[in-house]
Amino acid sequence: MEVLRRPFEHGEPAGPLRHSARSALMPWLAADDLADAMVVISELVQNVTQHTGGGGELVLTADAHAITIEVRDHSPVLPQVHPPDTHRLGGRGLLLVAGVTRAWGARPERSGKVVWARLTTSAAAPGEAAA
Predict the structure, then answer these.
(1) How many domains does the chain have?
(2) Is 16 left (phi over 0), alpha (psi -120 to 50) or beta?
(3) Backbone phi and psi for residue 101, each to the nearest 5 degrees, phi listed first
(4) DSSP secondary-structure letter at 103?
(5) What is the pLDDT of residues 2-18, one digit of tens each?
(6) Which end of the chain is more exposed for a tag (fewer CB within 10 A), N or C?
(7) Is residue 129 one of the residues assigned to a domain?
(8) What is the pLDDT of residues 78-116, one digit of tens each?
(9) What is the CATH number of the domain that holds 68?
(10) 30-33 long-range contacts, Cβ below 8 Å, gap at least 24?
């Protein structure tokens, strides 16, 4: 079930996007899982604004077992994970994403690419009783 679809522009303040994402995910995620999801959203959106020079679209989907975070942009260049380098500031975002998600990846699309991540939920889906 899609719970949020929100375009964003390059240079747009991150606060409103983060607020929309947090509000959409609160019914689906426990507090710790929500914090992880917000880190992933921040990293993926920041990658778009830092490395593409354009905006994109954040899409969140949920089911009873997981949340999928997708960030679309118009650049065909797929992200690359670099090993940590003590001489480079930054560059660890995708390692962080890999560390807090069940899986992540990127796929080319006709109009650019999608970078996605999937997080397991530990809370019951809205309308379901907790086990």
Answers:
(1) 1
(2) alpha
(3) -115, 160
(4) E
(5) 999 999 998 888 899 99
(6) C
(7) no
(8) 988 877 767 766 667 888 899 999 999 999 999 999 999
(9) 3.30.565.10
(10) 30/121, 30/122, 30/123, 32/122, 33/67, 33/119, 33/120, 33/121, 33/122, 33/123
**E strands of 43-100, at which residues?**
56-62, 66-73
**In-domain check, residue 67:** yes
Whether residue 112 is contained in a domain is answered as yes
- Whose tokens are 């975002």? That residue is 93
Predicted confidence at residue 121, as pLDDT, reads 84
Global pTM value? 0.87
Find the domain containing 29 and state its range. 2-120
CB of 14 closer than 8 Å to CB of 58: no
Query: E-strand spans in 38-130?
Result: 56-62, 66-73, 103-109, 112-120
